[in-house]
Write a structure and sequence with these properties.
single chain; 270 residues; mainly beta; five-stranded antiparallel β-sheet; 4 helices; 23 strands
């Protein structure tokens, strides 16, 4: 029997091996579901439904779902609202406890500041939620990403207290209805290629490798970093922290280091 499960915590680490000290490869946010592929006494190997990533989660941090519960929940997800600010707080109607929810968290059965998960009702500030995907243009993108500036870099992270580069792009473009895969090397396979930086628009993805590799020559076969184009001269990305930096045909120019930190390899529009 195929087992399904759901995260009922703000953030659940997904690890490469079934142990606490293993590398975090990604995260599950509140309300995300998965298929359980393998069970051990404390750990479950899962496949995330959002982007197909596989890894190990602490078994006590996900809740198994019956076939009927999963079908009902999946049907409700067809019209999910979404948290659009870095952090919002939901209050359980069962016990009054508060749970922080990070941007990109999907809320099922949402209406007028209330949503429901597996029969449990929650209240949330409606101003923190959008019932429709945001419209993507330069103005809305800049208005949205400014709330994420200085979020620190965290390998495998995709929440407002720590993100990696592709977790940032996946989360932000998800708010605009763009479904991205999890890693930069996967995201570069999506959408269509833009051949000229001057033709790039707000919301396009820019892919890079790091300066200092291969004698400073950009390697199109190695994608190690991704960011979101704001315009033909600026990019917002997570490298150390979420920040806005100069972008040109060579790559990302780091003012603090007075040099290029990443070589531009490719531009894509999803």
């Amino acid at each position: 029997m195929i087992l399904k499960a759901i995260s009922l915590h703000s953030v659940v680490p997904v690890r490469t091996e079934p142990e606490e000290g293993a590398e975090q490869s990604t995260q599950m946010l509140f309300g995300e579901t998965c298929t359980i592929l393998e069970q051990k006494p404390r750990w479950n190997r899962v496949k995330l439904h959002l982007d197909g990533q596989e890894g190990w989660v602490d078994a006590k941090m996900i809740a198994p779902m019956s076939a009927d519960e999963y079908k009902t929940y999946k049907d409700a997800c067809q019209a999910c609202a979404m948290v659009i600010f870095p952090i919002a707080y939901a209050v359980s109607e069962n016990n009054g406890q508060t749970i922080p929810l990070t941007a990109g968290t999907r809320l099922t059965n949402y209406k007028d500041g209330r949503f429901e998960v597996l029969g449990v009702g929650f209240r949330i500030d409606p101003s923190m939620v959008s019932v429709h995907c945001l419209v993507l243009n330069e103005e809305t993108l800049q208005r949205t990403v400014r709330f994420f500036l200085n979020v620190p870099y965290l390998w495998g992270g995709k929440n407002a207290l720590g993100m990696d580069c592709s977790g940032f792009t996946q989360t932000i473009l998800g708010l605009f209805g763009k479904k991205l895969l999890r890693n930069a090397s996967e995201q570069v396979t999506q959408g269509r290629r833009i051949t000229d930086l001057q033709k790039a628009k707000a919301g396009d993805l820019a892919f890079f490798d790091h300066v200092g590799l291969d004698d400073g020559v950009a390697n199109p076969d190695r994608i190690s970093h991704v960011g979101i184009v704001l315009d033909s001269k600026r990019i917002i990305h997570c490298s150390g922290r979420v920040k806005v930096e100069k972008l040109d045909e060579t790559g990302i120019f780091n003012i603090e280091a007075d040099g290029y930190s990443h070589h531009l390899v490719q531009l894509r529009r999803v």
